[in-house]
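ok so for the tutorial part 2 we go from a plain amino acid sequence to predicted C-alpha cells. step 1 is just haveing the sequence, like this:
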Amino acid sequence: MLHFMPDTPLSLVILIICSVLVCVFEFVNGFHDTANAVATVIYTRSLKPVQAVVLSGVMNFAGVLAGGLSVAYALVELLPPDVLTPPNGAPAVPMLFSLFGAALSWNLLTWRAGIPNSSSHCIIGSIIGVAVGDALVHGRHYREGIDWPQVLKVLEALAVSPILGLVGAGLFYCVLKMFVKDKALFEPPQGHQPPRGWVRWLLIGSCTGVSFSHGSNDGQKSIGLIMLTVAGLWPALYALNPQHQHTLPVTVSEAHEIRSVLDMYDHDVLRSDAMIAAQHLQTENSLLDKPILNGPLPPLVTVRSDVFQIVAALKKISLDKAVPSQVRHQAAHLRMKLRPVVEFAPWWVRLLSALCLSLGTMVGYKRIVSTLGEKIGRTHLTPAQGASSELVGAGLILTAGYTGLPVSTTHIVTAGIAGSMLGAGSGLQWGTMRRIMLAWVATLPVTIVLSAGLFYLLSH
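step 2 — the prediction. this is what the C-alpha cells look like for a chain of 460 residues:
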C-alpha cells in the first residue's frame, strides 16, 4: 500500500474511504464526548435531552469555526516527516488507515461499555503507533523516528489537565458552598421539575461553555486529520498552502541562513534529507517557477516534503540547550516563517469538521450521561457539582485550545465531577472510578500497539 500514486482513480477511491473514516471518527468523538457537556443539564432537568444536545451541537459547531490550528498541527508534528509526505510522492495510505482504524475501534469499544474515554488519547496513541511502525519499516531505532519532546509535551498536558480539573472543581464547589446560600443549588433534582431561576441558567451557561470549548479543541484534531488525508492523497491541490504555491515566504538570505544553521547544528540521522531540502530553498523569490541547483524544479509534493524536513530539523535545533541561544532563536524564527506553507486548512475543511462533530453530538449520549450523573459519586449529581465541573472544565479546555495543547474534554470534566463530589464530602464509587482509570491507562498502549501493527502490515 506504499505505492499507490496520487491523482489516479484508485487514489480517489482511497481518498473517499479515508475521508469517510475521518468523518466517522469525528462523529464518534461528538457522541462519545457529548455527555460531558449535556449530562448536568439533562440530569438536573434544566433542559430536555433534545434541547440539550441541539444546544451542545450548535455550540460545538461554533467552537470549531472559532478555534485556531495550533492544536491540529501539534498532533500532526508527532509524525515523522517521511510519513507526512513520502519522498516518492505516494500517498500515506498505511498511515491514514492505521490512525483511523486503531482510534475508531477503541473509541467505539469504550463507548459501548459506557466508559467515559478520551478521543484525544485515542488519536494521540494512534499517531505515536504510526511513528513506531514507520521506524520499524525503515529499520530505524524508535528514538530516531519519533519527536519525543513533542510527545512528552502533549502527554504532560493530558496528564496535568485532569488534576487541575479535579482540584479546581473541588475548590470551586467549596467557594460556592461558602458564599451561596440557595439550597436549590446543592440539592439533587426532584421529580421532573427543572431548577428554579438562576440555577437553571447557570447550568445552561456551563453546558454552553463546555460545548464551545470542546469544539474549539477537539475540532482542531479532526481538522489536522482531514488535512493529512487531503494533502496525502490530493497533493496537486493541497500539498502546499494555495497562498504559497508560487513563492515561499523566505528571502534568498533567509534560505542561506537555513542552510547554514542546519549545516552547523543539525546532527540528526536524517541530516542529509534536511540538507537536500535546504538546498532546494536556495533560490530566488519565485521558488516554484525557477530551476533548483541547475535542474528542474520538483513537484509540489516534493517541496512539501522539503519544507517538513526543514521545519522538523529547525524545531530540534530551537529546543537543543547545547546550541547557543541566539542560534536557537534564529531557528525558531525561520521555522515560524515556513510553517504556514504546510500548516493550513481551507474553509471547507473547518466546515466539514464542525458538521461532523456537531451532528455526532446529537446522538449516542445516554450511556455516558448515566455514568457521569449517577455512577461517579455516591450521591446523585447536584446543580452545584455539575456547574463547578463544567465551568472549570470549560476554562481549562479553552485555555489549552488557544495555546496549542490537545487536552481531553472527557478527562477534565470527569475529573471535575469527581472533584466536586469530594468537595461536597459525597465520596466516590470506586468501582466506576477503577473502570474509568483502567480505560485511561490502557488507551495509549492499546492504540499504539494497534496502530503500529496495522502500519507495519499495510506497509508490507
